[in-house]
Specification:
With 369 residues, the chain is of the alpha/beta class. The protein is 36% helix and 16% strand. It folds into 2 domains: 224 residues, Aspartate Aminotransferase, domain 2; 125 residues, Alpha-Beta Complex (Aspartate Aminotransferase, domain 1). The protein is built from 10 helices and 16 strands. The longest helix has 32 residues. Pyridoxal-5'-phosphate binds next to helix 3 and helix 4.
């Protein structure tokens, strides 16, 4: 039995020698950033892989979220989920926008469309939902509400790389979708991110905003930011893309082994897929219910004692952090499902290099209790 520590995720690194030719190319080009050839090539290949028409690459997902809000000139209040990584709401605060928290659905753990309307005020201008764990939101229902109230939709799609429904990429929904290519994500460029744009004009505006607002050498049209992805990051993305299908296939295998092994355990609830045609198996969340012999935190500790470092995504809720918890919508009574999920959730290790042996070690710990 191996006693190697197992973490919730581990970045997928192709063999180092495969990256050397990319670096040699950059050295030959002497172009390090500002939309160089690697950057252009990655945009092209990602559009083809994801099945989208326009993409703008970024240095990280958070700057991409900030810029998406700027691109659509979102102001006032934005409806969002407390059950996410803190960058979702932080991107609103950085733009001087007030987040309004709405509770989640107990099955998908995504924003509950039935609760959105009650949170809309004259100040509401947009909705920022999250495809949590890569499970698609109720995209049609959310679109209907946005249409009725003339609201924008920006999806935080940081978990949703490569996810498809029967009509194609789920990144096509809403006004904009934002990806993260952080080291911990399914597809990574060390640090990185992107905005999926509906048309060339929107992409052009976003490309200006991520380059200080420059449109040419002497013209600045907006107070833009530096959101550019470097050539080294883009090159690593090109290499990752060559391996992505194999990496996703292994994740899928791990997901199905977990499901098979854990399905029968009393008190362990699995989250069912939300009907997507193609999932990305980016996380393996389980809910520890009251009839399991250990509490969620006891299980978390039990795993830790055996060198398995699971993570409580998402606990605490965003609405519990000091810069949010005074808001009316952050009150516990407004978010019962989110609180319940945050208290039960634990994400088990899943990544392409996770061995069958480690997987067995993890499922055994859960079963032995
Ligand atoms: C990772 C993540 C982000 C932030 O992306 P970075 O690339 O790390 O800036 C935003 N939202 C969610 C839901 C995430 O998981």
């Amino acid at each position: 039995m191996s006693d190697k520590p197992v973490f919730v995720t581990q970045p997928y690194l192709p063999p180092l020698e495969e990256f050397v030719p990319y670096l040699e190319q950059i050295w030959a080009n002497k172009i390090l950033t500002n939309g160089g050839p690697m950057h252009q090539q990655l945009e092209k290949e990602l559009c083809a892989y994801l099945g989208v028409e326009h993409i703008a690459l970024f240095n990280n997902g958070t700057i991409a979220l900030l810029t998406a809000l700027q691109a659509l000139r979102v102001t006032g209040e934005v409806i969002t989920t407390p059950y996410s990584f803190v960058a979702t709401s932080h991107s609103l605060l950085w733009n001087g926008i007030k987040p309004v928290f709405v509770d989640i659905d107990s099955h998908t753990l995504n924003l509950d469309p039935a609760k959105i309307e009650a949170a809309i005020t004259p100040q509401t201008t947009a909705i920022m939902p999250v495809h949590c764990y890569g499970n698609p939101c109720a995209v049609e229902a959310i679109q209907k509400i946005a249409d009725n109230y003339n609201l924008r939709i920006i999806y935080d799609a940081a978990h949703a790389f490569g996810v498809k429904d029967s009509g194609g990429s789920i990144l096509r929904y809403g006004d904009l979708s934002v990806l993260s290519f952080h080291a911990t994500k399914v597809f990574n460029t060390f640090e990185g991110g992107a905005i999926i744009c509906p048309d060339a004009k929107t992409k052009q505006r976003i490309d200006h905003l991520k380059n200080f607002g420059f449109v040419d050498e002497v013209t600045v049209v907006a107070p833009g930011i530096n959101g550019k992805m470097s050539e080294v990051n883009a090159a690593f993305g090109l290499l990752q893309l060559k391996h992505i299908d194999r990496a996703l296939a292994r994740r899928r295998e791990i997901d199905s082994i977990y499901r098979e092994e854990l399905r029968g355990i009393k008190g362990i609830r699995l989250i069912e897929e939300a009907g997507q045609l193609k999932a990305n198996y980016s996380y393996f969340p389980v809910l520890v219910e009251a009839d399991y012999p250990l509490s969620r935190d006891e299980l978390y500790q039990r795993l830790k004692d055996k060198d398995v470092f699971a993570r409580r995504y998402f606990y605490p809720l965003i609405s519990e952090f000091p810069m949010y918890r005074g808001m009316v919508s952050a009150q516990r009574s407004n978010l019962p499902v989110s609180h319940s999920a945050a208290e039960k959730i634990i994400c088990l290790p899943i990544y392409p290099d996770l061995s069958d042996e480690s997987l067995h070690r993890i499922t055994s710990i859960l079963k032995e209790v």
